[in-house]
């Protein structure tokens, strides 16, 4: 928490600039391509990581599908998770975030910048609408990050059960599932220190539709979770 408060304080001028820039982009959205918006988002990630003294090592970039949309399903450890993945993912992607957590000061304009989506856990109709929108965008070639654990309170490098409903996005779009294993991603904002921390992002081999089409959402969730757990186990030896 100390690092989170510190980075917010030292980044206040940058946050103000982000709000102003973000508002301008939203007002003149026709002037900005997704690539331009995403490039700005990655520069923001780099600045925040530099201010917060965070380093991220990236593995498995060769596993990412070269063409078409897909959904990345990642374990969830803390506030840094989405930033770490976006920093590591060169091509434009976006994220689905819990509506309540999206209200964090710096996350709200950032989410708008990358045209992400929020999920209202208390509203089933809203959830169905969100899933439908994600499916349509993935079919159109977008890449999404989803955290199927649904929360990250003190998860550390342990992986909680995945919510099987999260995988409807892939089943309905019939697109690849890309498991993502985060290691030590909880450390930046959970450990009460300003010393440099290093996190890891591992992009695992994609699971193509042909390999999961006969499985239930619960079976898919278990398969993806097991692969992520195994990678974390190997990475933390």
Structure notes:
The protein is an alpha/beta fold and 237 residues long. 46% of the residues lie in helices and 16% in strands. It is built from 10 helices and 7 strands. Strands 1-7-6-2-5-3-4 form a 7-stranded mixed sheet, sandwiched between helices. Strand 3 (94-98), helix 5 and strand 4 (117-119) form a beta-alpha-beta unit. The two termini are 27 Å apart.
Assembly form of the protein = single chain
Question: How many distinct beta strands?
Answer: 7
Averaged pLDDT:
89
Helix segment tally: 10
Distance between the termini: 27 Å
Summarize the main sheet.
7 strands, mixed
Low-confidence stretches: none
Strand line-up across the major sheet: 1-7-6-2-5-3-4
Helix content: 40-55%
The secondary-structure element order is: HHHEEHEHEHEHEHEHH
Shape: globular
Q: What is the gyration radius calculated from CA atoms? A: 17 Å
Write the layout of secondary structure elements.
Elements: H1 2-10, H2 12-27, H3 34-52, E1 54-59, E2 70-74, H4 81-88, E3 94-98, H5 107-113, E4 117-119, H6 124-139, E5 143-146, H7 168-173, E6 177-183, H8 187-190, E7 197-203, H9 209-212, H10 217-235
Parallel strand pairs: 1-7, 2-5, 2-6, 3-4, 3-5
Antiparallel strand pairs: 6-7
